[in-house]
Structures are given as C-alpha cells and as structure tokens.
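Sequence in, structure out. Go.
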Amino acid sequence: MAVCKVTFSKAEREKLAEILCLLNWVSVVTGAALFWVGLFLKLELQKWQDVMSDQGVFHVPHILIATGLAACGINFLGGKICLDCADSNKFLRWKLVMMPYVACTFFFTFCVLVGALMCYSVGDQLQESLFLGLRHAMRHYKDTDTPGRCYLKNTLDLLQIQFQCCGNSGYRDWFQVQWISNRYLNMSSNSVRERLRSNVEGKYLMDGVPFSCCSTFSPRPCIQQQVSNSSAHFNYGPQSQQQNLWGGGCRQALLDHYTGIMQSIGVGVLLIWLFELLVLTGVRFLQTAMENVLLQEDPNSEVAGWILENSLAETARSNVKIIKSLGKCYQVDDDPNLNVSTGSPSAFQVQMPGGQA
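Output:
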C-alpha cells in the first residue's frame, strides 16, 4: 500500500510543477542564506580561536557552508527540471535524472537538519574547548617574546576588555599563573627571589591581575596588585573589591556569546529545513505522478503520486533484499574447473609425427 497516495489531474500536475519551479528558485536564495550564515559563524569563531583548544566546533559552519552551496546548485537545476515536468514529452528528457535529483535533495535536506541540531548540541564541546584554551592562553600570557605565543597577551587583553570578564572562571584564576615575564622582575630584590623560591615550579605567583581586568565602572583607580589584601589599600572593602575588577569569567562570557549566536542560527536553519522538506515532498509527488503518466501512455489522464510506493515495512524489507543481493554479486563462486582431475601425464602428450609422443 502506497504511503501518502494522492491523485493528480493534468491541470493539477502542471500547477504542481509551476509551484515547485518557484519554490526551487526560493531554495536557491535559502541556500545562499545558509552559505552566508555558515561563513558568518566561521568568522565569529575565528575571532577567538586562539583561546579555543579544540577546533571541532568549526564543523558546524563548514556543514552550513557546504550544504548552502549544494542547495544552490541542486535547486538551480531543480527549477528547470520541475518546469519541464509539466509536459510529459519534456519529462522524458529528465526521467533518468529525476531519481538522482530526489536523492540529492534528500541528502542535503538531511544535512540541513544535522547542521541545525549541531547548533544546539555543540555547547558542551564549546565549553570544554574554551576552558582548556583559556587556561593555555593564560599560562603563556607572559611569553610576549616567544614565537607562536607573542600574540596571546594582546588577544586576552582584548577579550577581557570587550567582554568585561577576567580570567577563566574569575579574576582569582590569575593568582594561579605567572603572568608577568621574568625580564620585568627585579631579580636583585629579596622579596622577588623569595617568592620564586617559595614556589615548587619556580614561578612568580601573586594576588594580582592584568590591567585589562579593571572595571571601567569602578569609582576609584584600579587596584591590580594585592587584590585579596584589603589592609594594603585605603578604604578598600568587599564592596570596592567587587567594583574594582570584572567579576565574571571569560569562559562563561564567550560561551553565552556563541550560544546566543548558534541558537539564533539554529532556529533559522530549522525553518530552512522545513521549507526544503516541503520542496522534497512536492518533487517526489511530481516524479511518481509523471512516471505513472508514462505507464498509462495518456498525458491527459488522472494518475496517482506518492511518497513511497509501498509501506515503510515493505520498503525496508525490499531495500534489505537489494543490499543482500548486491553482497552476493561480490561473492566468488566455486570454480568447477578446480575439482577436475588433471589425469595422467600421458593424456596431455602431443602425438608427434613419426608416431613419437
């Protein structure tokens, strides 16, 4: 029994073909939109890729870019195919192309759905990537003269100023790393040497933060050193401490930033997927209806179109049989000549002239 069987008259088939032609041209525009959305997301991720450890999150924009380009190409051709399918004579030119066209449309429609779902499921991966990437960047904040790391200080400072954040999870994260280069330390000072010796790894740790952690809303000059020592500063209490530095961590700030972007993109991509699913359904109806017109050899007759010719269970069983039959085609049958006795050597002797073998 066919799934979603619908009967079409000649006028209805022509109308369906015209509507699908228009929808395919709209799909070219939505494909271009997917491409630009993917490109925008890729550029947004690249802005702060230096503080990300895992570049796997870039799979999402790559899928959107590739799917958008595929949609533009397939739907551009699909508009011409659907318009010609209104005429049974012109349909003959595209009969062999229709099934690959439907398969390609189904594949990129599925990719659109995958891209939309990944926009919502990449949060945990992005959070872990930001946590490890920010920790690595903070550890090498001081390496301004080391090739390959000299840009990390500038990147972190811009990040903390732009997103009004400090550290990985908070400003106290800077207390756990040496963010001042040794070349700026006074090695002749007893306090500096003592602080270096007191640390197992020989690092200069202190309760201080970079200047980019300073809040622009603080009512007093920023306090960067001895942040946790309220007695070291005049009139410096818990209230002043909270207003002095950005309180939130950069990991959560970036995570919120990218989550908002991806959720907005995910909604748009889901809407595009629903539209492409509508186009795919219409194309499948048109294909099956026009094939039935050719079978009846009457272009003016009413014919049925469907999504699946048989039920889901029957279709699944037939596909399994096809796969099994394809597997048998690659099996090597026993060669009947392998079991044939070669006989005695004299049976293969050639009779020579003169009666000699």
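Check: Confidence is low (pLDDT under 50) at residues 342-352. Residues 250-296 form the longest helix (47 residues).
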